[in-house]
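User:
I would dearly like some help making sense of a protein record. Take your time, and here it is.
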Amino acid sequence: MKDLFGKALLDYQRGNYTEDLQTETNISEIDVLPLPYLFRSYLEMPLIEQTALDLSFGKVLDVGCGAGSHALYLQQKGLWVMAIDKSPGAVTVASERGVQNVALTELLQLQHKKFDTILLLMNGIGVFESLERLPAYLEKLKELLNPGGQVLADSSDLIYMYDRCENGGVIVPGDRYYGELDYTVHYKGESEESFPWLYLDSKLFEELASETGFQFEIVCQGEHYDYLCRLSLG
């Protein structure tokens, strides 16, 4: 992988910011992702992220930490945080910014660890990739949680992006779940290969999480079909 995401973060961190990331999916056109947004403070974060950070306790795992903004805030609150990302550039930036425990790894690769709070933010559910792979990720989350622990994850229901019929029905793909997307990153004239990224409506997420033994609760809703949920074990 070219790690264009990490390259962009490194450029911003080291004073070489000249342009923003661009992203697109198989159901949307190219959109701009401003690099400063990835380095935002708590006060600049949307309510969903602020709520997740407010609810965090104990030993925290920040999955897909990016530039480390969430981990840094929790460290400043006095919490112990492990931040992970599969982007080498992101891991370097998070470390340079002061994240004390940061590792280049993916969620499914973690072994012999236990946490009280696991964060999957900025559509963190996307790392699950597809409905087919979702059970494996949910089982891994169960394995990583301490008794009384919680998973705080956010996503969006993308049903609004699809066309409607005259009778009010929605035209969705017949060969896949409508929240299973192919995601592509562009930066400074380069493009990465597309990768799978999952958006999950809350009703289906609750059903699938319950099948794995989780209790599901929506704790916050955003302004545009997005939500923050908490998964816990009885």
